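This section describes the prediction task in plain terms. A model, or a person checking by hand, is given the sequence of a single protein chain and must write out its three-dimensional structure as a string of tokens. No templates, partner chains or ligands are provided. The sample shown here is typical of the held-out split.
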Amino acid sequence: MEEDLISKKQLLELTGISYGQLYRWKRKQLIPEEWFIRKSTFTGQETFFPKDMILSRIDNIVNMKDGLSLDEMADKLSDKASFDRVSVSAAEIIERNIVSSVTLGKFGERLGVKNGYSFDQLTYLLAVDRLLSAGEMNMEEAELLFRTLMNKASNLESESWELFFIRKMGVSSFILAQAPAELWFDEGVKLVSKILSADVIEQLKGKLAFKLVE
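The expected answer:
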């Protein structure tokens, strides 16, 4: 299954950052070396990036650079433990638009949170919110996705997972697998959406950056 990539040229045009900034952030290890993917094209060799992760990372850097040095940002963005210690109230979630009020109201209370939502809990809520907000699933499917993440994600050996949202003859299913996963579907299956935990985590880090610089 092809990874969703963005070329370096498209990235620079879309984000408005310069070539020099991009490679300076690479040298400072703000952007991981392995995200620079060299591929052959009809014009020769070109550099590509995993689209969702690089866009979220650049957004994170831009949002954090006024409060932290490049070295401090590199330490925090590469260290998930910093975010694991973060606790976010329901009011902050709405104020900062971390997930929608619909998703928080529907699923947040089921987590039994008293003193703030943890990073892992917000990861599950954000994954549900992404598909709901994109109009790719209805509320009944959101219920199934939320239960799948809550009941199964913690059973995986690592935090890196991939979630496949499929439909066949109008029946929806979710497949949660350890990343990287290779799945093949029969002709009757439509892949509605695919979510990588790494993308959700990167997006969430950006939304919670205010907790590390305040």
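For orientation: The two ends are 40 Å apart (CA to CA).
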